[in-house]
Write a structure and sequence with these properties.
- This protein is of the alpha+beta class.
- It contains 2 helices and 13 strands; from the N terminus they run H-E-E-E-E-E-E-E-E-E-E-H-E-E-E.
- It is globular.
- The protein starts with a helix and ends with a strand.
Amino acid sequence: MRTQFSILSAILILFVKPAAAQVYPPEPGDFKVTAPFDFVVEKQALSPGNYIVYREKASNKLQICEDGVLCETVEAAAIKAPKIPGQPKMLFSRYGDKHFLRQIWFSDGTGFELSACPLESDMDRTGKVEAVYLAADVLCIHMSKGLPPSWH
């Protein structure tokens, strides 16, 4: 019995550790958003829920993680806002009941434009598009105290 438990533990560690290592560490400016609807990020469909958005400072890579576990990594083109927004936000294109993530804005004024997926391109020719914004909460990082991240 103990041997089976040890083997199972070793297998779980092999699979869980690499997945956790791929999540970017929290940086100042990363944020949490609650999406009340299904939406598409590039080719991946995501369900309603709480998401954490991480930005890799050295590149234009972003991670959108559902409850910090399941992550979708995307590359996006950096864009600049005419004025610095008061808080981070996400911009979606809505066609009827379908939402497609188009832009992610951080509180420092840095924005990222995501490429359109083929499904959105098809809808763009046939339907009316609406812009939908979701406001977000900035992630507070307790670096000096070693405490876990929290929201403010």
